Predict the 3D structure of the following.
Amino acid sequence: MHSQQSGRRRFLKSGAALAGWAVGAVRSVSGQAPAGSEPPAALAGSEASSRDYGVRSGFETSGRLTHIQAWVANVGPPVAPALRTPLQDSVGIITPAPLHYVVDHGSPTPGIDPRQHSLLIHGLVDRPLLFTLDELKRLPAVSRIHFLACAGNSYLPLEQRQNAKTVQETHGWTSCSEWTGVPLSLLLQEVGVQKGGTWIQAEGAEIRKLASSIPMAKALDDVLVAYGQNGEAIRPEQGYPLRLIVPGFEGIRNVKWLRRIKVVDRPYMMKYEGTIYTNLRPDGTARWFQLELETNSVITSPSGEQRLPGPGFHEITGLAWSGGGAIRRVEVSTDGGRTWKDAQLQAPVLAKAHTRFRFPWNWDGKEAVLQSRSTNEWGEVQPTKAALERMWGVTPDYWLTTTNRIQHFNAIQPWKVTSDGRVHNVIWET
């Protein structure tokens, strides 16, 4: 019998782990999990059957918006497009899996056979272990609702702003799902983190092998090794068969197609951590490892490129979120920020999840500027663009640079409603 197989079976039979919950073990850390292969043709085409899987009504046409990731177009194979969620059509807080945003950093979606995929945990640990997907699914699972958002959400480079008219174009790199999986803390408990293990490096199985650093304190807190999304297996473009969910942290930390976690003694400045996912300051220094996403919100209706049919009652609605916990308050202004009134928060209001807010508005037919402002449970308030400039110590010219990729932009988003009912994006006009 193959030594790897026999070792796993002995461990499973021993019942030594998790008080009776068995975990597969491989003491050697030399082997890496293969990326797998494309699924059989019969399986790949099974979703096409409306009887077997179901399709939405042909009258529903909402879809994701393609955005070519030109910033990596000169590296490696043809660039995979990024896809933005149609927030303007959203209801509630859950994003359907087919509409969840996608950022793949130029890597084609791998076709991974779950029977051949494994998760290796090694580094500064007492017992390096290799977990198959079946073994992970035998462990106690949890399901939690959390949002994901790209660190570049809410901000577009200078050359793209004139075309950013809708909420899908300005804020479409955030989505919210129910995620199911195993707490990473449980797996780290099994491998035995050594005293010097203060960070982890998580790595995916895609062509570019994207890797990201996460503090151990966060890894032991609420991070999930997830295999389920909204009641079914995670979709290939979302990391099938396995991904990290790092609640409240910028999207790149939520590594997809997860194949390896290494416990280390410090962050090692992986490729994207030292380049794209930083904020270059005017003095030449940069903000690194910002990690947690700030308090944010956006009105999704009425929003850019929509048109109100006429004066009278309209419900203003939108989404708020915070990487630092639950949203506790959302205020809405209909006069460009001169006055604010509290919006209603729609239940459930969950930590590190989208929160739906609603506000009744009787429009008098005159020009108006609509804004939302969120506050999280720690009292952190979403800033205006001017306030963000003061916080960062920059001038308005900072946003005009063509060499800097700005991350973690969470300024209040204004929408101007003109007297004919048309709605326009005016954030860069104020």
